[in-house]
Design goal:
The chain has 211 residues and is α/β, with parallel strands linked by helices. The protein is built from seven helices and eight strands; from the N terminus they run βαβαβαβαβαβαβαβ.
């Protein structure tokens, strides 16, 4: 089982790894859902985690708020991605939508074009899509070679238990073609139950390990 700990900057990273986190999603500003951490934070996190053989997935998101980005923001995303890759991160976490609440295909293709050799996770922007669009997006992401989709399975206002039926549907539809990474409300107490119900091998959260 892979327990992906969502870390805000470097502060809790050593304690999380010591407590059993097997992968780190590195962010800043978790109060707004996570934004790109500074290059200094990325470099120090990589230096520490690499010694422990724990991979780092770095959030690439220029601001809080929605996931619809203008050309300047996409340029920032591209530059941040290149800097993170040069710093040696194992992967990136990203998500871009259009004003019509569909995946921004052009932005995704730009990001993937700059992320060769990295693991890729499309984050909870996925939860903004309607049901039909989610299934179409899973198929397209499989074609693109994206590694995983981080999803709560519903609006953030719903508990993880309320979202489990839809998460199970997504896992079944993906059918091993792409990893469905459940997150949002998963902690050290409920992870075993959720993993078993969904039939997955990875889970994500800020409280997925205790320390």
């Amino acid at each position: 089982m892979i327990k992906e700990f969502c870390a805000e900057n470097f502060t809790d990273l050593p304690k999380a790894i010591a407590a059993g986190a097997s992968r780190i999603e590195l962010c800043d500003n978790l109060a707004v859902g996570g934004t790109t951490p500074s290059l200094g934070v990325i470099e120090e996190a990589m230096a520490y985690a690499s010694e422990k053989h724990v991979p780092i997935m770095t959030m690439i998101r220029p601001r809080g708020g929605n996931f619809v980005y203008n050309d300047l923001e996409l340029k920032i995303i591209e530059n941040d991605l290149i800097h993170a890759k040069n710093a040696g991160v194992d992967g990136i976490v990203f998500g871009c939508l259009t004003a019509e609440n569909e995946v921004d295909e052009e932005a995704v293709e730009m990001i993937l074009g700059n992320s060769s050799g990295l693991q890729t996770t499309f984050h909870m922007a996925f939860d903004e899509l309607n049901h039909e669009e989610q299934l179409k997006t899973i198929d397209w992401f499989v074609q693109l070679g994206i590694d995983r989709i981080l999803t709560h399975g519903g609006p953030a206002t719903q508990t993880i238990d309320e979202c489990l039926p839809h998460l199970k549907e997504l896992v079944d539809y993906a059918d091993g073609r792409i990893i469905i990474l459940p997150g949002g409300g998963i902690n050290a107490n409920n992870i075993d139950k959720i993993i078993e119900f969904l039939g997955v091998k990875e889970a994500h959260g800020t409280k997925i390990v205790t320390f």
